Amino acid sequence: MIGRVHFGALDAEARWREGPAPLPAVPDSAAERIVAVMEEMLFALCAPGDALLTARPLLAAHRQHLEDAGWRFQAFSADDELHPLRGARAEPYAVTAEVLETCRRLELEAAHLPPVEVAREVGSKLFSNALAASLGLPGVAKVTRDAAGLASEAGALLGHGGCVVKDPLGVSGRGSMVIREEPELRRLVAWLQRRAEPFELLVQPLFRRAEDFSCHLDTDGEVVGLQVMENDGLRFGAVRSAPLALRESLERANYFEVMAQVSGALRQRGYRGPACVDSMRLADGSLVPLLEINARRSMGLINLAIAARAGMPSRLSTRPVRLEREVGVEQVLEALDRAGVLARRGRGGLLLLSGRALAGGGTRGRLCVAALGEAAVPEGAVAGALAPLGIASGRAADA
Amino acid sequence: MEPRSLGELKVLLAGVLRDTDAAPRVRDEDRIVDDLGLDSIQMISFLLGVEDRFQVALDFERLDLAKLGSVRDFASFVDGVVAAQRG
């Protein structure tokens, strides 16, 4: 008897979008292939008796690695006979039309899931921005719906360090533009005028941030944990277990009272499901408690689950890598094991979270790992283990 | 023959990478995504800069980040767009 089934694509915001993206976007077929297989990471949310459902089966060497590290769960792929899942409670990454169709087709228990329209609405930055404004919180963005308005709102911020222009359904690494100089703004305004499509964009000051962190709410709206986010500009870099000192400082700043108000607003709107609230501490020590709401599961929630299961702190990262030649996940695991950095049951180290993402984009891939334990896994040891296999960092700045 | 836009594209790439001294180090054969490591946000800034500098309109949605190829390949592509749109 399977209690719960974890599944669903990680690119929820793209699936929620109904019209064209309001900011210029270049399709990236390699990145799309990588993100598609990163659903494997949802194994981390499986409790005993739960199942993971993915489009393609987990690679055997990866599955064995997870078992060696203490993660046991039932795994199904689209190729399998799926009737054992009938009646199991659906625990999707996000509520999308595709997810509800899977629930219907597999006869999963789905009555607890909110409507797609509600998830889409509260997952939009327009909702979180309006909520921040109604709560009188700092950091509220201006919403603009025409090119002249964008030129005016963003132009006013250029003399004050610049701004970030955000797509309401943009996600980390896509759907935002930092504008520091007038030519950048002029080019974007020209593009929007030329395209002549209706749009909504948020214009926010470019904050001098000291620390990004996130607060995770469960389906009942209760706080389940905090995560420190290590972003690289506007891109997701990593999340890690938050130190006790962060929680204590946030308690003193009444941060959790704001989170209770956010939770209440989500429930009032009819959203029942997990959420991740992104927050920021600025260089002057002040807080922007509500930057955006991710109305879905998240990398931070996955990392919270990993740390809880392992009984030790965890740092989850999804690092782009370049591959000079074809490489198998078993070779990668052997190399990491030889370097002494692989996690084993009860022993810290690296836990590989997706086997297929590693070479998911041909010459590009993503190394999705959780580093378990107090002692950080040395970056040099990982790079040194992977270099002989022709795997290198995928960012010029990291090379 | 060297594409006409090659040198200016290297300057634009250096600007997007926020390393104004990088232009001479960008090699013709460097792949824009795999070697220079431009992400999707930097790519948009780069392409808007290309549109502005060469006074052309690029159809972003018909491009594919995974297939942009080398700096030289892209310069040849830009030369073609310039020729087609300026006549």
Summarize the structure.
The complex is a heterodimer of chains A (399) and B (87). Chain A has 399 residues and is α+β, with helices and mostly antiparallel strands.
Let me know the average pLDDT of chain A: 93
**Structural class category of chain A:** alpha+beta
Low-confidence segments of chain A: none
The beta-strand count of chain B equals: 0
CATH first level of chain B: Mainly Alpha
Q: For this structure, what is the CATH homologous superfamily of chain B?
A: ACP-like
Order of helices and strands of chain B: HHH
- State Rg of chain B: 12 Å
Assembly category: heterodimer
Using the coordinates shown, work out and report the CATH topology of chain B. Non-ribosomal Peptide Synthetase Peptidyl Carrier Protein, Chain A
* The number of domains of chain A: 3
Count of DSSP H/I helices of chain B: 3
List the defining traits of the structure above:
heterodimer; A: 399 residues; alpha+beta; nine-stranded antiparallel beta sheet; four-stranded parallel beta sheet; 13 helices; 32% helix; B: 87 residues; mainly alpha; 3 helices
Write the layout of secondary structure elements.
The complex is a heterodimer of chains A (399) and B (87).
Chain A: E1 4-7, H1 12-16, H2 29-37, E2 51-54, H3 60-68, E3 74-77, E4 89-92, H4 97-106, H5 116-122, H6 125-134, E5 142-144, H7 147-158, E6 163-171, E7 174-179, H8 182-195, E8 201-205, E9 209-217, E10 223-232, E11 235-241, H9 244-252, H10 255-268, E12 275-282, E13 287-294, H11 299-310, E14 314-323, H12 329-338, E15 349-352, E16 364-372, H13 379-386, E17 391-393
Parallel strand pairs in A: 1-2, 1-4, 2-3
Antiparallel strand pairs in A: 5-8, 6-7, 6-8, 9-10, 9-12, 10-11, 11-14, 12-13, 14-16, 14-17, 15-16
Helix pairs in contact in A: 7-8, 12-13
Chain B: H1 6-16, H2 40-54, H3 71-86
Helix pairs in contact in B: 1-2
